[in-house]
Amino acid sequence: MEETEQPRTGESVVDRYPPSLRLLHWTRAVLILGLIIVGWTMTSLADEVPAKYGIFYPWHKSFGLLAFLVVVVQLIIRARTDLPEPPEALTRGERFLAKFVHRAIYVLLVLVPVMGYFMSSTYTMSDGVFFFGTNLPELLPKNDNWFAVFQWLHKVLAYSLLGLIALHVAGAIKHRFFDHTRAGDVLHRML
């Protein structure tokens, strides 16, 4: 499939995301899915289960920070790259919703791990912010009142992100399989 097509005006239009963004998108998708599963698992375990704090929490923190770094790299590449616009075959409302959902997802992809870091940094019982064998500096003072705020924000924003991701996936499936024309299909742009 070609990267660009020539419209009538003679200007180049980007038809697909570049390979670097496609790779980062799917890497991030796998990371986020894993973080959601691990997050649900670790918070459902009793505190007495050694794996809860010995395995699940440290690895959740590590992969959460990795997901954050992937998003930062994505944002840098996106800022320097011509990206495809939503197809004209989509209604005006669908194009608006697609742009809004994408922007909101990126905002939350930054905020959720930042709130997780703030949570770990402020919790008085925390061993620190673990990142694949290294404890990162804790930039905020220990304070369980602030921890409670960051914990609530991390949870609410994570569920909000999950809802937006579900909407994102539902939109891609709708345009791929249920629209009357394939002109609105956007999935090929990320494959």
Structure description:
It is a single chain. This protein has 191 residues and is mostly helical. The strands form two sheets. It has a two-stranded antiparallel sheet. Helix 1 runs antiparallel to helix 2, helix 2 crosses helix 3 and helix 3 packs antiparallel against helix 4. The radius of gyration is 20 Å and the shape is elongated. The N terminus is likely disordered.
Q: Per DSSP, what share of the residues sits in E-state strands of 2 or more residues?
A: 5-15%
- Average residue-wise pLDDT: 90
- Provide the structure class: mainly alpha
Specify Rg, calculated over alpha carbons: 20 Å
Beta-strand segment tally: 4
Shape field? elongated
Question: What tags apply to this protein structure?
Answer:
5% strand; disordered N terminus; two-stranded antiparallel sheet; 191 residues; two-stranded antiparallel ribbon; 4 helices; 64% helix; mainly alpha
In short, what is this structure?
The chain is mostly helical and 191 residues long. It has helices spanning 19-44, 50-79, 92-122, 144-178; strands at residues 4-5, 13-14, 129-131, 134-136. A hairpin with a 7-residue loop joins β1 and β2 (13-14).
Task: Tell me the layout of helices and strands.
Layout: E1 4-5, E2 13-14, H1 19-44, H2 50-79, H3 92-122, E3 129-131, E4 134-136, H4 144-178
Antiparallel strand pairs: 1-2, 3-4
